[in-house]
Prior knowledge:
By secondary structure, the protein is mainly alpha-helical.
Amino acid sequence: MKHFPLSALLLILPLPALAEGDAAAGAGVFQNRCSDCHAEKGDTVKIGPPLTRLFGRVSGTWAGYDYSDAMKSANITWGADTLAQYLPNPRAMVPNTKMNFNGLKRPGELEDIIAYLAKATAE
Ligand code: HEC
């Protein structure tokens, strides 16, 4: 297999569960759809809890934020997969959450915001 072409190698790599998003586009989505209610870094509580260090955080655990009982008992570990499930329709995943948001519906928005959040909330 001396001359095994690189393109053939790429074809056999497993596809990621979620397409790679565009973090720069995701920044705009965050600004328009989330930033009224959430800071992505720091410890400012808005209508919702800060999303600082979100990846790996267990739902309902930002100290000093008054969560709904639904979010307190949801027991979700936030990451790309759980956000991909939550953000298109928060109330489907966490019935009775007080996050008053219909969900991200436009194609691409979800991947983009997850790419943005992975970067921005880690800082
Ligand atoms: C109208 C205000 C509002 C908007 C807009 C909003 N959220 Fe929320 N969000 C909340 C509230 C309030 C909670 C707490 C929910 C609860 O306690 O049930 C929350 C909770 C969350 C949580 C769980 C946090 C934790 O600590 O467990 C995540 C993740 C989240 N929001 C992400 C987002 C993202 C990403 C967007 C934009 C796409 C967004 N939210 C838009 C108000 C909002």
